[in-house]
Amino acid sequence: MALQQSATVIGLGSMGWGAAVSLLRAGFRVSGIDIRPDVLTRFEGEGGQAFARAKDAPESDVVFVFVVNSDQAKQVLFGEDGAVATARPGTVFLLCVTMAPSVTVEIADRLKAAGMQVIDAPVSGGHLKALSGEITVMGSGPSAAFEAAAAALDAVSAKVFRLGEEIGLGSKVKMINQLLAGVHIAAAAEALTLAAKAGLDLQTVFDVIRVSAGSSWMFENRGPHIVEGDYTPRSAVNIFVKDLGIVTDEAKREGGETPLSAAALALFKEASAAGLGLEDDAAVAKILAQKSGLVLPGME
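Now predict its structure.
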């Protein structure tokens, strides 16, 4: 009988939680790492092992890193309580964090120097796709690492794009995705705010645009948040302050022009500065509404 495969998921936020439960459903022995006691208790209830510190988790075949940013990634990997110190040489680390490509390369080099295998593996698809094991992985790295992590990747994803062996390619493609995602959220907020200012019924406008040429995945997904005034965070404003910041910084590095990204970033920054940073990213509509003299649902 084959040995049960093991996996560790560091960061049980919306995407990490979905990946962790998908791995459990696929029969993996899963260790979940998070600093929130209530999340750890809930994960134990799902049948996983829960730890507040990565170094306390047992050895795993693969380690998924789903924390918020590169600083957190460095801390959970190389810090005092980090995963690398107690990991078995040859463990595959999947870097699922949205990071600047240059930082992804830096972290990967440190992991390889410690004897680990690395896949640059940013993801997309949202919380519901993560829960159903159907995220998209934009992966790059050595073929041997992909082969070692194949079963784990199958458990969490509907599609794995193999972009090449060079670490950083995955992060570059994710950066382009986030450029479009952030701009489309800002555009959806602007469109629905203008619709309200024009005296149109928001639900009707959403229903029409959703099946028309002006729609986008973000319009379909975030539009109902604005129509219903529900800004419970699925992905927060501050996430796009970070992600569009990566886009504009890397564009400067490459000599590229990103005027739409810069405009969207300014809107997300304004929303964050207004105290909306932890609300759903669609809350940028509130800033536009205030400037337009409007009261949208959820602003009463």
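The two ends are 61 Å apart (CA to CA).
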